[in-house]
Amino acid sequence: MPSSDASTRVLPTLHEFFSPGGILARSPLPFEYRPGQYEMAKAVERALSERRHLIVEAGTGTGKTLAYLLPALRTGRRVIVSTGTKALQDQLFFRDVPFLETLLGELRVCYMKGRANYLCRRKLFALRDQPVLSGLDEIEEYRQIAEWERITETGDRAELSALPESSALWHKLDARSDACLGSTCPDYRRCFITEMRRRALESDLIIVNHHLFFADTAVRLAAGSAPDAGILPESAAVIFDEAHELEDVASQYFGRSLSNLRFEDFARDTDVLTRANSAATQIPALTQQLRERARLFFAALPMPADGRHPFTNREEFLESSGDLYLAVRSTLSLIETELDRIADLDEIPGLKNRAASLRSDLEFMLESNASNMVFWLERRAQASSDRRAGPPTSPLQRAAVRSTIQATPIDVSELLRELVFDQIPTVVLTSATLTVQGGFEHLRRRLGLPQSELGARELVVPSHFQYGEQALLYLPPNMPDPRDPEFVPSAAKTIERVLRITRGRAFCLFTSYNQMRALHNLLLPVLDFPLLLHGTAPRKALLEEFRSTPNSVLFGTSSFWQGVDVQGEALSCVIVDRLPFAVPSDPVVQARMRAIEESGGRPFFDYQVPEAVLTLKQGFGRLIRSLEDRGVLVLLDPRITTQRYGQIFLQSLPPYRITADIAGVESFFASAPA
Known about the structure:
Helix 22 links the parallel strand 14 (531-533) and strand 15 (553-556). Strands 3-4-2-5-10-1-11 form a 7-stranded parallel sheet, with helices on both faces. A 7-stranded parallel sheet has the order 14-15-13-16-17-12-18, sandwiched between helices. The chain is built from 27 helices and 18 strands. With 674 residues, the protein is of the alpha/beta class. It has 4 domains: 12-108 and 203-253 and 413-464, P-loop containing nucleotide triphosphate hydrolases (Rossmann fold, 3-Layer(aba) Sandwich), CATH 3.40.50; 114-186, no CATH class; 256-411, Fumarase C, Chain B, domain 1 (Orthogonal Bundle), CATH 1.10.275; 467-670, Rossmann fold (3-Layer(aba) Sandwich), CATH 3.40.50.
């Protein structure tokens, strides 16, 4: 831990730190005075001192992390910084904070992840005494984890580099709250979650991610005024970096979700934890009954194929399959009753709570009339080996895939206003992509930010990159509409020609897996460059291969549109297949558009266009990451020039040079500095 005088040390003023000739200029980093960075830092400090909210769009290259970290540390009060991606969370804690410490001395900073990232010692010891391990792989993984437990100080699974991401064993050992005994646990004092909470209480700055922040908020909402609800301590301010992701993440945690795997997990844990108890003789039969009934229930849900489907016909489902629903609910009640008979086991309260939670969520999904919720279904194959066997058809086959019932809020603005903006004195929202046509109206409306004079201040900090010189936007002429059958072959010809000019070194970003695979298959035989395909390896491994392989091309979908930083010549071109409108058949998108229409709005212009603008800005933002970067952006969708709404996109993008002539692309690369 940092020394005791860390909180009393006087930190430099913003001018002393950011000005030409200041502390930052004298640091080992290459320094260039950035007026926008200093302006943002002053705006953040003012918001913190006045206890007001602030929205800042800070263009790529502003140096926004230092622009909010120093003002946060200077408050002398606890501040939470929440990031949209784990990559940025790691950058803040493992790079930016240590850099600041070389200039300012030790800082009291804590790094927190969700509970599922940490080991539960009680579960580890219970599994040792009652081993339920599946095969040699799990036995070897258990040995590695048990040896690591003796030496780790954090219990963070990220330290286990050899543990597969898909490890089923870790799921049996992590510290999720649904099986936590809290202060009654015999390992409470040595618990990694307890230690993480203690570090957080002693810290001035706590670095989390949006998923943890909203999971914690949802737990507090469900628990009411219960003590020890959540793991995040109170704070004077929260800074949301990558704030363009807030609505989607908040929607996940303010909704409900019920999957077949959750029933399987509960049945397994109940078997393991009660196996040695003489009063639990009926439990094995009941958990087996629960497994069978849950499988039949999920297999009967109306999901014609993998993917997301509306669940608007819940009444019809209850009429045809209500007996399956009632059977699952009845078995859960029987398990709760049977658990009441077991009085001498510490885990019983946690198991009863899980059974009650499953029953409550099941009842909500089938019987709730909540007007602000959209109910939908999702089915996903659990493994590639399952997919090779073809689509599941029989009830037993369908039960083998991951099936989920979801309830998602249609509008989270009121919840965010009540639980975040009205509760926290200062909330700072920042990202490189928050404005549409230069304004924050869309963000304010979707997130529930106050519009009054005393509401959130606004600031747009332009990037200090010279986009007019560093980037060229190529809009190829005569492209068919993306919905036209001729689009894919035309796109393949255009991509091939562009990639020959750029010598590979490109991201090809797509809005659908099908179109990505179709174009990859067409281009693979005709291009000599290494063509990497999203889904053939983990995302991190593909990025490393792209960086290390000269002239490579990466074909990717949504997860490569943001949070990816490749500097230098390795990435000299970004090609986007179409304007990234949300899929109109998606149940959540449908519900939100319907709600906007019913309130007198224009769903396409009020929701779909602004969301697509922000996504396109994120995708194009992969290209220019430093002052030395140069490259070409390509948009294959002709609607940006043929449709009236195309101007909204063009007016929202940075001031790129634009050409419709392929010769302009050739001359751009021909004029590249040696």
